[in-house]
Amino acid sequence: MKIITLKNQFFIFLLVLICNTTIAQWTAVTPTTPLTRYRGQTFVLGDTAYYFGGSPGYQYNGYSFVPGVNSSWTQQPTGTFTIANIPSTGSDVPFTFVIKDVAYLGGGANGGSRYNQFYQYNQNTGTWTNKASFIGSSAIVYAVSFSIGNYGYAGTGANGGAPGLNDFCRYDPAVDTWTVVASIPGARFGAVGFSDGTYGYVGLGLSVCDGSTLPYNDMYRYDPASSPPLGTWTAMASMPNQQGGEEAAYFVLCNKLIVTLGDTINNCGGNKNTPQTWMFDPTDGPVGKWSRLPDFPGTVAYCARGFAIGNTGYVEGGTDINTGVTTSQLWSYTPTLISVSATNVTICSGTNTLLSANGSSLYKWSPASGLSSTVTTSSSVPGGTTQTIASPLVTTTYTVTEAICGQYTSVTVNVLPSPTINTSGNTTICSGSTTNVSAFGGSVISYLWNTGATTDNINVSPASTAIYNVSAGNGLCSANGSVRVSVPVINISSHNATVCSGSSASLSASGGDSYLWSTGSTAPSITVHPSSVSSYSLTGTVGICSVSASYTVAVYPLPVISIGGNTSICGGSNSTLSASGGTKYLWSTGATVNNISINPTGNTSYTVIVTSALGCTDSSSVMVTLLPVIALANSQTICSGSTAQLSATGGSIYLWNTGATNNFITVNPTSTTNYTVTVSDGNCNNSAGTIVVVNPLPNATACCNATVISGQAVSLAVNPANTNNNYSWTPDTELTSNTIYNPMANPTKTTEYYVTLTDSNGCQKKDSVWVIVNIICKDIFVPDGFSPNGDLINDVLYIKTENNNCIQSMVFNIFDRWGNKVFSSIDPAVGWNGYFNNKLMDLAVFVYSLQATLIDGSSINKKGNVSLVK
Fold it and tell me: Going by DSSP bridges, is the β-strand pair 859-868/785-786 parallel, antiparallel, or unpaired?
């Protein structure tokens, strides 16, 4: 059953559900009594179609149509059937559905009025019975409807020009009651709806007539058994390549939906309808599938109506979008049979044939074995020829089925066996050898080798690895075979087969078991330095074969460079240097041309790198000398405060930037200074310069003056310290070291210490520091006894004092008891060891006398006895 709703402001989209085995064909039908109508509604009972209401003029009368040779539309109640007119005030765009061969009609409009009336039609009596009014959004037009089992469903649409609705209601004829069920996603009017007996489907349509909102291209499936009693809606596949449409005419064949004459934009004027026809198959995959069908060939109109009787669909009426005139066109849509053919129905094993089918637009092939594709689509719309490649291994019957109603046809591809062919022969030989290769197989009666030979075996002597192909035939089919005869080779490769003179080349051999190069090397890779074109040969082994190979290295000469130009010029003058011998040049100045202009400020070397046309490079240099040639030391280095002697030669007249006019000058700069001299030889003037670098003296001082008591050490230092400097202290006596920056001093008397600092530049600085020594003189006495027995305790008799430095001068004498002098000393550090005339004296008492002058100027005079004990 089909449900269509349409508003006169909108374009028509024809939806057709077909159950055909092939793609349908459109055919014009010419009734004996045509019907000129649009925007009505149809339903089908048995083999009769009924059209009620519609325009122009908001018609109430109904017509029936029975297809046949003398088919015609018959106004009711006269004619074949007695059918009453619609017993309601609404005649435009009502909704209809059929439940168990009983038709129902509801809703609709008359002018600006909308109605919710609902009636049941009795086909036997041709009468209408009033039933429970539709309870959706009150009175509606442009609604969709369908029936599932014992129930009818209606919903969507519009009410009084308002935007589209999304509510849905179920009608139960057993109790004459409407019940609200689940609303469809997306409010709309002018949608399409149909049922496959288990599910209902609603899609397309328009949400609002605002001139900008595009029509829907969606489709939803309604499942009444899910979440009863409301049911649920599930999104299905959307129509491709266009924005759907609204108010479509449609009919159902084999539970498939076909769409044509759709309004592709929202202009609410019915002048953008398309003749495209689409089929929706809800069973193709989990969300169904849309497929393109032949275009509608009649007048492109809107508000046409569609219906199906048996296996034929029909499209009736509509308003011509070009003229606005309501048409009486009636077109039937009948599937045609598909046909299949093969380029060759008999093939040899291993070959293929091309299978072609036509008459539909979507095909499915089976079985899948040996086919390049099992689902094919024709290359044109309406249906055309589609092809697949069959490569069966055995005789196979292929069936092609059109995807609409499942009709099919078949073709058998017979597969003849190909002859069996085998090849044999020695597949590896040494270069220069001969081998025999042969082909054989059952039922083979002829052979053809790629050498041209027609025997079953041939002798071959390939110079390199070769493949010998043979074709064998049995009179019906042929088979191909091949024999590969390998000739071992050794390959030599190089990344630089051509080198420039003086360069090297690396040669690498591969594929052998051993190698012997003409250079004597046995390594796989060698590096050679050819001076000219050279060929390097190699003898190696590959298995039992001895294999030779060679490689030629070409040698390109280096460019021969010549630099011309005046290389001796007066200072401040220009000159041009010109290089030749190549195609590319790069000077040390950065210039990339062969000629450069120079203006050197001093004697300068210019280098040019030249590249030849062969890509080899070399370089050459030239020295440009300024005249006169001045001999002048480049630089000198002195220490601050020193002088430097500068001497220039090469001319007769000299002028220094100091103002001096001699060739020899002495300078005493306080900082680093540049000195220039201009020299003239009578023809040219030239200038030269030198620099006198002045290094500062070490920035350090000796530290620090100190006063100490005799015998007390003191630290000397140079501040700041620098480990890179050298130090020399004087006097170096009584110092721990005279070469460090911080020695310890222990002078016995007041001393001035001098230090000379030499830094890394060789510059020196001298400084000094005083150490004043205070000597403290306490009691001076002579012990009254000593024991020179060699035990190192009191073995020597000394004058006892805190500091020997206290005594400036002295005379110390010792006498025996007879008055003989046995010892005398003028140094307090020299004492008596008890010996006289090299003989140790006996135990006795001796007399001493001491006369001394102290460092403070005072004098002492002492006498006394001293005992020698042992």
Answer: parallel
